[in-house]
Amino acid sequence: MPDLTPQNFHVCKSAIAFEKTVMGSGGEYIVRYGRVFDRNVMYDWTCTCPASTYRKAKRCKHIRQVMASGEWCGWHQLVDGGEPKRDEDGVARCPKCGRETEVEPHGV
Question: From CA 94, how far away is CA 3, in angstroms rounded?
């Protein structure tokens, strides 16, 4: 099998780390998307509410609320295609939401 060739791809910062505080029936909860170390996936959603803490298999209503709001875009150039947009300072920005991007190397 041939070796993989490393290539750099842009990723929206929301796809790496995202956090939002939401109001729930028991007060404020923090919904996050990012690295998770206690599960079989590398990136996933978490919430500080009791439902998310004790029912790990399902996404709680706070996570679903944030996902539906459109504030998190999760754009990844390798998966979604396209090119980042450059602003007047030359900063690469996500074509979906306008946030800054980071470069991740991937073997292709």
Answer: 30
